[in-house]
Design a protein that fits this description.
2 copies of one chain form a homodimer.
Chain A lengths: L1 E5 L4 E5 L3 H8 L3 H8 L6 H14 L5 H8 L4 E6 L5 H16 L3 E6 L4 H13 L4 E4 L6 H9 L4 E4 L9 E5 L1 H14 L5 E5 L5 H16 L9 E3 L4 H12 L7 E4 L2 H13 L9 E5 L2 H6 L5 E4 L2 H16 L9 E4 L2 E3 L10
Parallel strand pairs in A: 3-4, 3-5, 5-6, 6-7, 7-13, 8-9, 8-10, 10-11, 11-12
Antiparallel strand pairs in A: 1-2, 12-14
Helix pairs in contact in A: 1-2, 1-3, 5-13, 8-9, 10-11
The first copy, chain A, binds a DNA duplex (16 and 16 nucleotides) through helix 2 and helix 4.
Pfam families (chains A, B): LacI, Peripla_BP_3
Keywords (chains A, B): DNA-binding, Repressor, Transcription, Transcription regulation
Protein name (chains A, B): LacI family transcriptional regulator
DNA sequence: TTGTAGGCGTTATCAA
DNA sequence: TTGATAACGCCTACAA
């Protein structure tokens, strides 16, 4: 036990009180203290004594030392594509809250949408001996993920699936998210519906486009590929692509924009043009409820269950960390919510 | 050394190779291996042997075990008000990149703008025995910060200062940020300049308002307090307060909005009204260059040195972690950049 | 230059 | 129920 006397403030700071100290104070052995801490059998009267000693000394278990014995670090790694995307960080926020409650700390890494960085950071997490990992994968590098799983480190995938990886996953039903949104537009009589998609190589973007295509099939409508715009999930591309759409010879009467940043850009573009929502174009955006409420008219929007994603992922990981390997691998597909507001209108026939 | 044979894939996975294993393979003692790892004196020929053994076994130092001896965890705590604010997370992203390069992992916590959570998370970080902490404090609770510093854990404050805390800090010159922005508007002939501020109890908001006031003093202009709107740094308040400003009997001819979210809301409000930038109102926003470029006309904007804040903070902490206590406490005040675009115009006299 | 031995703060085994 | 005692993987005097 180190005692540090801060004379200038007359305050005593005690650091690193160990079980040894508690044992001495309680007049018992270290082994008994350890048992008490870990819920073993200790005489009732001794429990009181130990409890008192712990409180008085301000003892706290040294997790590092414990980790050395137990091979647990009480740490989980969280790996996301970017820390500069509010959708990702919101999910992190929820995961972190839940895990911290259970005593886990989280090492958060972002790989800046870079596949080689993704691998590096994953290696880093493994080296730091995290007990588990939650990741939004980008590369299709199931090799790496599998090597992590092979080390008996539970991994939970979120947002993006990886074909060929046997691994728990929490996904969003992106396909039906866009299916339902576009279907509403079709029901309202729209025949030419534009979509601003994300990059081809991103799982969620593929699925959202697929939903758009399938609903067209189901309603026996052919897709005009000129109405399908591929963006990069950034503000600027939403802005640019929306302008492209409305400047077409035969512009769409409705449009679905498939993430927050692009929705933002698209709204900016519309605001600056002379076309009006919903008179000239019906509009459905994605992801950010706060934004949708502020815009006039209120924006119709597809909401992803951000909170739920975090909860499910965190609890799934906690389950594995508890050693519960039942129904592995389990894949949860969460539903989005479609909020329809005045930004969409019926098309007269 | 545990060897695990994954028969189904015929792949051998070796986990936890220890120095002991390396020592055995190299025919030397553990102490020698340790010396080699830590740069001690080892015979050149033995260096080769050890190096070979390490490579073949894929040995990596167990940082946990090392930490037990050295009292270092090679982990730093990053504590921010919210993970759902891109300004904060961008800074994190930069700090994380730098620290990870030096072998440090980061435990990122957010306190959801809640003072009691802030204290809890700080305690949590201390309990996790982080080697250092970077935090954006909210509470004026210098008591807590001081207790951390008292434990010899270096702390670097960012974005927000804490009066009475002797502590390294990386700040932004918020006062002159708004001073310069408003000054430009004054130079262009504006007499009635509105400002949309953040909450009174947030350091940056106080400073930005102070800059607005001081430039008025310096130009011998009286502040019309009806032009000073207090928001909460969220989209909605930017939207609402801008509407309040333009609906005044005597509306301002120019406005400064003092963070990203409120800038976004304000732009939305303007777009939906019938007033035009810059003809009816000159506009200067804050923080997000990407947004500013997309809007038409391009937005004048105050840019905070996000990247630099992260760099300076990370390097300052690394310096302390190296044990370099020189010029403590050091406070760095970084300058913002004012980018003037077509969203501001000259007022004819 | 190398190796032996003790210790970091826990946990876990096995007698007592 | 309790308490020696031996790990866990690494570092570090000190001795060889």
């Amino acid at each position: 036990m180190n005692i540090e006397l801060n004379v200038s403030r007359m305050k005593v700071i005690i650091i690193s009180v160990t079980m040894k100290d508690v044992a001495r104070k309680a007049g018992l052995s270290i082994a008994t203290i350890s048992k008490y801490i870990n819920g073993g059998n200790v005489l009732k009267e001794n429990r009181v004594i130990i409890d008192k000693a712990i409180k008085e000394l301000g003892f706290e278990v040294n997790e590092i030392a414990r980790g050395l014995k137990t091979n647990k670090t009480m740490t989980v790694g969280l790996l996301i594509p970017s820390l500069e995307n509010i959708f990702f960080t919101s999910i992190l926020s929820n995961i972190e809250s839940i895990l911290i409650d259970k005593g886990y700390s989280t090492i958060i890494c972002d790989y800046k949408e870079d596949k080689s960085l993704e691998k590096q950071k994953l290696d880093f997490l493994v080296k730091k001996m995290v007990d588990g990992i939650v990741t939004m994968p980008m590369g299709c590098d199931l090799e790496i993920i599998n090597s992590v799983i092979g080390r008996n480190i539970p991994v939970v995938l979120i947002d993006r699936a990886l074909k060929g990886v046997d691994c728990d996953a929490v996904l969003v039903d992106n396909l039906n998210a866009s299916y339902n949104a576009v279907e509403q537009l079709i029901i309202l009589g729209h025949k030419r519906i534009g979509i601003i998609c994300g990059p081809d190589d991103i799982y969620t973007a593929q699925e959202r486009l697929r939903g758009y295509e399938r609903v067209h099939e189901d309603y026996a409508m052919t897709v005009d590929h000129k109405l399908v715009k591929k963006g990069d999930y950034q503000i600027e591309s939403g802005y640019r692509l929306l302008l492209e759409l409305i400047k077409m010879k035969e512009p769409p009467t409705a449009v679905l924009v498939t993430n927050y940043e692009m929705t933002l850009g698209a709204i900016m573009a519309i605001n600056e043009s002379d076309i009006k929502i919903p008179d000239d174009i019906s509009f459905i955006g994605f992801d950010n409820l706060q934004l949708a409420k502020v815009v006039k008219p209120p924006l119709s929007i597809v909401i992803q269950p951000v909170k739920q994603i975090g909860e499910v992922a965190a609890n799934m990981l906690l389950k594995r960390l508890r050693g519960d390997g039942s129904s592995f691998p389990s894949m949860v597909r969460l539903k989005t919510e479609l909020i329809l507001k005045d930004s969409v209108r019926k098309i007269g026939d």
